[in-house]
Amino acid sequence: MKRQFVAIVAIFTIGLLANTMQAHAQNKIGYISLQELVANMPEYKKAQGDMQEYQKALVQQGTDYQQAFIDKQKLFITDSAKMTSPVKEVKRKELNDLYVKWTNFVNQEAQQMMNNHEQELLAPIQDKAVQTSQAVAKENGYAYILPKEQLIAFPSADDILPLVFKKLNITPVKDAPAEAPKKN
Q1: How many domains in the chain?
Q2: At residue 27, does pLDDT exceed 90?
Q3: Do you know which InterPro entries this protein is assigned to (predicted)?
């Protein structure tokens, strides 16, 4: 009877130890710099090129608005002597509307358009970075992955960035930007 009791206690103790070890393994914590990951992804480099092209187009649009205003203003100045008061008033309003359109575009619309375009381009890249990081965490037994930028101290062994680079077949670039734009 005592042997059975000792065997049961031993089995129970082994089971508890196994559960404790399994629970400990499930609480493995790692970290990653998603900003560094995104900045090294080929999709990000392409998105940067697209953003530069889009920015050039917006600058050109602002320049076109400015030139339209300047041309209308010059025309108004040269022709205003021949205009009646009501025509001058209509032309001044037209000039004012053009000026407002130009300044609103330069001061607000262009920036908003740029931000929206950036989000459209970066959202799928950031989603891919997160999904791949989650897959690597799962494959390597990590229960939690924290953002490296939020940590004060961390062991280098728990940085999953090299594992994610390997899964994505990315060779990190030493001079890659330290920070990619953040998702809003």
Answers
A1: 1
A2: no
A3: Chaperone_Skp (IPR005632), Skp_dom_sf (IPR024930)
